[in-house]
C-alpha cells in the first residue's frame, strides 16, 4: 500500500503525476471544487460576522468519501491542487471536510505547489511543502461571499421589477455595461463624409501612389475635403500646377527596431487565440488546461510575464541552435508585469520543453496542437533579437511647395523574432508597406493621374471576445480565471448575442443594464469594481482583513437594496415616448414588460384602458418610430376566411408573429410580416401545416371529451393526451395501441418525470381522466382496481376489459 496520498484537481493530471512519483504515492482527484455555499438565503450570515455556511457539492461527495477511505491506509496527505486562489481554497475545503470526518487523526498534511507538471518540478514541490496559505483562502472566500451577496439580493429584485429568471453578477454587470454603452455609441454615431486625394506616380517602370499632405499652403486634415465637388475642384488645380510631374523635395530613411512581445499571460493568450485561431475564451482555457495537465505547458492562469532562469537558458540554447547566433540578443530579455496586482503564479505561460514540436504531442488533438504552437512560438520569440525595419518617407511638390504629396514604405532589413512570431496576423501588412523606388532630392517622377477617393467615418467597432477581455483587463475588472465565465454567462443569460464574432446586447440586456445603472450605479461602476478587485488582491497578500472588507461592502449595498425594494415597475421600466396618436390624441410609448417589449397607446390615468401591441423580435424598441408603432395597433389583422370557412388573423404573441385559423395556430416564418402577409400566402402556410399534421398523425383513441392522439414524432411514435407525451415501445405497433396500453404508457411517463423531480400538472390531469374513465364501472370495482392494473392482467382479461371499456364509453357519449 502507498505511504502517501496526493490530491490533485483533475483525473488527467493524476495520470501524468503517477509517472513521476512512483508506487509510494497514491494519487486521487477531487474533480474540482468539493464544497460551496449552500444555494439559498442565509449562506452568508451578514449579522453573524459573515459566517459562511458550506455544503459538500453533491456530484463530488463520492470523491471526498473515496479520499477519506484511502487516507486511512496512508501515512500522510499532500494537497496539490492548482497554484492559485481557487486551488488554495479547494485544498482548504478538502482539509476541513476530512477533519470533520475524523480522517486526519494522526496524519500529517502538506500543501505542495508546482507550476508545471515535469519530473523536476514535482519532485521539488514534494520535497518543499508548506502549510495552506489562509490569506489566499480568505481572498477566495471574500470573492465568493461578494458574488453571493450581489446575486442573491439583486437577482430577486430583477425578477420582481423586470422579468423572472434574470440574474445580476458583481463582475458580469460592468462587462454588460461596456457592451451596452458601446452599442449606444454606435447607434448615436453620425457618419461624416471625407475625401482623400492621391497622386498616381511611376518611376523606372515602378508604379506607386502618394497622398496629398499640403494644399495651397495649408496642411490637409481629415475633413479638408468633405464632398466630391470640392475634391474635383482641387484636383483640377493640382493637375494644372503639376503639369504631369512631381519633384522630390525630401527623402527620409531610418531604421526602426521592433521588439518582441512578452510570453503569454492568461488574458493575452485568450486574445491571441481569439484572433488567430478563432477560439472562444472558454475553448482556449479548456484546451490550455489539457496541455497543462498533460505536462506540455506551465500553469495557464497567471498575470506574470516572468520566466524561470532555467527556461530562459533553454530557450536561448534552442534559438542559437535552430536560428543562429544573429537571432540571439546579447543579454537575456526580461519583462515587467503591467498589473500591480499580478496573481500568485510566478511564471508566464510557456512550454515545459520548447524542443517539443506541436506534432509530437502524443494523443492530443488539433486544438491542443494549435494552441501549443502559439504558446511555444510566443515564448521562443520573446527571447529573440529585435527585428529591424527600414522606413522610408518621400515628400513631393506639385508645381511649388504650397502643394505637397507624401508616400511612406518600409522593408524588413533583419527579421529577428518576426521570423517566428507576429503578435497579430495583420502586423505583416502594417509593418511591411509599399516597396519604393530609389529616389533622391531633386528627382522628377511622372504623374499619371490624380484621383479622389470617397470615405466615411466609421462608428467604434463592437467588442470581440479579444477586445472585451483587453478592455476588462485595462479597467482592472475581473481576473484571468474569470474572463471566460463572464463572457459565457452574458451569452447564456441571453443578455448579449455573438454574431460574426462580435457582441451585440439584446433588448433584455439593455433593460437589465439600465436598471442596474440607474438604481445601483455604484456596483456597475468601473472604478468601484476595479478597486474591489484590488482589495481582494490585498487580502491575498495579507495586507487587508477580509471580513471588514465584506462589512463595508454589505452595509452600503444592503442599504441600497432596502431603498429600492419598493420602487414601482414604472420607475424601473422607463418608457420611451414616441409621440401622440393623431386620431385619439393619446400618447404612444415603447416599453418593456414581463413578456418582452411592447408599445402602448394611452395611459393608466385614462378612463379607457390603454391598448398594447408586442414589438417584433427583429425590431428595436429604442429606435421604433411612431408610425411603426401605430401599424402594430392594427393587429390582430383579419385575412378573411380559409377554404374551410375558418376566420384567419395574424398577430404577434409572446413567442413571435403567428397566423390563427379557427382554433389552430401556425408560427409565421422569419421572413413573413404579420402586417403585410397576403391571404394567398396564409392559405399556403395553412396547407403546409396541415400536410405536416397528416404526416404526423397515426390515429386517435376515443377517450372522454378529448381523445388521445397517436403521432409520429422526432424520436419515433408516441401517444399524448395533449399535456403528457409517452413514447411507444418498438414491441407495440402504433396502429394497434389500445386505450389501456396508452394510459399505462402515460402513467409511466409521469412517474419517470416525477422521479427526476419533473412532476407536472399533467399527472393530476391524467389521474382525473383515468378517474372519469372508471365511472362507467361499479364504484366497488373502481375502488379496488385501476385501469392500469387491468392492463397488466392476463391477455384474455386485458382484451375483454378493453372491449368493455370502449363500448361503455361510446354508449355514454351517445
Structure commentary:
The protein is 40% helix and 21% strand. With 814 residues, it is of the alpha+beta class. The chain folds into seven domains: 129 residues, Rossmann fold, CATH 3.40.50; 123 residues, Orthogonal Bundle (Topoisomerase I, domain 2), CATH 1.10.460.10; 136 residues, Topoisomerase I, domain 3; 120 residues, Topoisomerase I, domain 4 (Orthogonal Bundle), CATH 1.10.290.10; 58 residues, no CATH class; 60 residues, no CATH class; 92 residues, no CATH class. A six-stranded antiparallel barrel has the order 9-10-14-13-12-15. Helix 3 packs across helix 5 and helix 5 packs antiparallel against helix 16. The radius of gyration is 36 Å and the shape is globular.
